[in-house]
């Protein structure tokens, strides 16, 4: 008689993109998999909110590094083409600069001391020539360098668990060691300033540090690789918003039997002591998770795909924490944010899909948000997404959907947001200032009067809804000591069978990194220590398998 062996059981904590992606891959590895999510919906930071005919993305809004999404979907037996309707944005984004007037040719425009420029994929030299005449050859050299760094990172860093020290001793890395050393020890700010003199050109190339939760001054110049993603590869947009991306990853999970439970808050990771455990290895192993109300879900494997600080300091006893509170006290949480969701009557053609608003002294902005004495910057640089410029389905006819993100300190004391100006005063003041600046700089003087829906989100909301460390908006900053193998690892040193995914761990923050983090869980389980992505199934086409 054949012996039927029960499938090992896995529980994934958190139904953000990393949790859903991890669950999909674990189910394909043979695990009977549950996902438990404390909120009443899936998506985490990438969730959506619908109100009065408007659909708002609550967080991520840039679709970069498409090859990472392509690879993940192929691992799941499908493709990006089958799952998403992607649009290439042109221009990729528009930048508004304060305090400088331009003597350059179009596409620069001036309005009452504010300069704006459109940045187009593959044609970024046009914008840079307008900002800094004669800079084209320097930009081409910069982008060639960014491409080399980008490809090196994909081959050796982003898909590595760093489980073995020899990971960094591969021949290609040793060949590039001198250059890598310079890129790691020179700031992005210095790297850019050595090549460009116009402060606005420097801002465009330094801004990707914000995607990494830090500032150009604090980010290693290795991260100039991000310019390859937006200036060379380009910026895409998934029709339906980023909720469509979450829906696609959720489909990948449920097709292979993953069960997703919402409104299920985990209060503890349950463990048992290993018999005869000695030395520095794990002394306990997981046996499941406990939910609010006392229910226990038994498991052979637990993956924490939410905030790592919360899991390590709230769901485990102190003696089992790999990253206890004292470890976090020496870490940088990155910025917080005030988010403003606006439904606007009438169109706002002055904005493109993505628009950035940069103050003249943005070093002061970064110091205010990330410095030793954090405070809300005034005036503040900020970002605006107008997805209804591309996707009419996100707003009623002849209306616009605007998402405004203002970086602020990661400080829960700033408070919560709310509807129609009902958030805490500090949060609403930040929103009012951003709306006023947007209206003035973009030339939309009646913007505030045309707002029919207004919702704000503050650092306390991030802390409460997402269990985010210190109310941070993104996750631990990508400073040198919080990047690559220096970042929190994706496996517990104290508890066997406890692994991590998401922006708090390897390889870092952002949707592509979260998808990679799901794959790194599988690499840990397989004992795979290479820096390469996992092999894709043969014969994956453009159709969704039955």
List keywords for this structure.
546 residues, disordered C terminus, alpha/beta, 31% helix, eight-stranded mixed β-sheet
> How many individual β-strands?
21
Query: What share of residues are in beta strands?
Result: 15-25%
Distance, first to last CA: 31 Å
Please, how many helices? 18
Low-confidence stretches: 541-546
Structural class by SSE content: alpha/beta
Strand order of the largest sheet: 7-8-6-16-17-18-15-19
Shape: globular
Largest sheet: 8 strands, mixed
Mean pLDDT, rounded to whole units? 93
Explain this structure to me?
The chain has 546 residues and is of the alpha/beta class. α1 runs parallel beside α12 and α5 crosses α11. The strands form 5 sheets. An 8-stranded mixed sheet has the order 7-8-6-16-17-18-15-19, sandwiched between helices. Strands 10-2-1-14-21 form a 5-stranded parallel sheet, with helices on one face. Strands 11, 12, 13 and 20 form a 4-stranded mixed sheet that branches. Helices cover 31% and strands 19% of the residues. It is built from 18 helices and 21 strands. The chain starts with 8 loop residues before the first strand and ends in a 20-residue tail after the last helix. The radius of gyration is 23 Å and the shape is globular. The C terminus is likely disordered.
